[in-house]
Amino acid sequence: MTKDLSIVIPVYNEEESIPELLEWIFRVIDKNGIDSEVILIDDGSTDGSWNVIQNAAKKELRIIGHRFNRNYGKSAALQTGFDHTRGNVVITMDADMQDSPDEVPELVKMINEIGLDIVSGWKKTRHDPLGKTLPSLFFNWVTRKVSGIPLHDFNCGLKAYRSEVVKNIRVYGEMHRYIPLIAKWSGYRKIGEKVVEHRARKYGTTKYGMKRFLTGFLDLLSVTFVSRFKKNPMHFFGTIGILSFLTGFIITVWVIGEKLYRQFNNLPRRDVVDQPLFFLALVALIIGVQLFLAGFLAEMMIQSRSKKDEYLISETTKDRTT
Fold first, then answer.
1. Are residues 155 and 300 in the same domain?
2. How many Cα atoms sit within 13 Å of 16 on the Cβ side?
3. What is the mean pLDDT of residues 282-299?
4. DSSP at 125
């Protein structure tokens, strides 16, 4: 049965915040008369989060819980949530209560009435230390320049999507930061932004450290490459391979031709193998062939790839047919 709204919440060791967050969510959606479901994905929590989710699901039929058998990461949790949504609009938020459910009605309105594909939250005023906010500003600036998407806060967990978007993209690894970019490369270009409230953490501690900024830039390079060339990797590897091969070939012909010219004209000459330029040309030839073969093999893998990756769910609170 289709719903007006699905709210997807990744959970990792947030047992204290879940009851208060759920009470707040249902207070908001009931007040606004939104037919909703709330999907919580326990990403292998080691505290009592799953017990809290189970108890909540027993009391409230609109709550669906899924539990991973281990910690896969936020991207896996979001993708699993996306796969199980039935709402025309899908909203994601973090379980730490730093995202305000009061933003939900306006986010739904921006998708339904303005016709946007994605609305990304912008935590314009943040309650985080400078050691977290300053790297985040730089990270978002770089991402804007690379992606061409004018968002201020790519990493904000509070986002809204038209259902079609989340059903036609795949999020893996640590790519959850770049869902707008993944969606853009999939043809969903109506991307908006809304200033949202950012609340100070009430329970627990942050699960992210400085490491995420280094991995974030690596992920940006990865998602940019994959988004551009996942359907035709030969365009990337083949182009560079041909350029490298031609460069090596031209240098080789020039080196050999110069020797023959000097030989026929009785000019001083060196053996081809005594010239460093010859070995550079040889390396360029070999690299060119290898890159071309890499592109060819990548094309073959795409043509014969198996079904999409799946994450192992060990428990579910209820059958989705109910």
1. no
2. 6
3. 87
4. S
Confidence of residue 311 (pLDDT cuts 50, 70, 90): low
Helix axes 130-147, 211-229, angle to 10 degrees: 10
Here the tokens at position 278 are: 């010859």
Classify residue 310: in a domain, yes or no.
no
Tell me the two tokens of residue 115.
């016709």
Distance CA 256, CA 276 (A): 13
Contact by Cβ (8 Å): 7, 93? yes
Virtual CA dihedral for 49, 55, 60, 66, nearest 10 degrees?
50
Residues 248 and 222 in one domain: no
DSSP characters over 169-217: ----TTGGGGHHHHHHHTT---EEEEE--BPPP-SS--S--THHHHHHH
For residue 225, what are the domain limits? 3-230
3-state secondary structure of 270: coil
Packed helices 49-59 and 18-31: angle between N→C axes, nearest 10 degrees: 30
Q: Please check whether residues 90 and 196 belong to one and the same domain.
A: yes
Q: What is the pTM of this model?
A: 0.73
Decide: 159 and 87 in contact? Cβ < 8 Å: no
Q: Tokens standing for 282?
A: 């040889």
* Contact in structure between 83 and 57 (CB atoms under 8 Å): no
**What are the start-end ranges of the H helices in the chain?**
18-31, 49-59, 74-84, 104-112, 130-147, 163-167, 179-185, 211-229, 233-264, 276-304
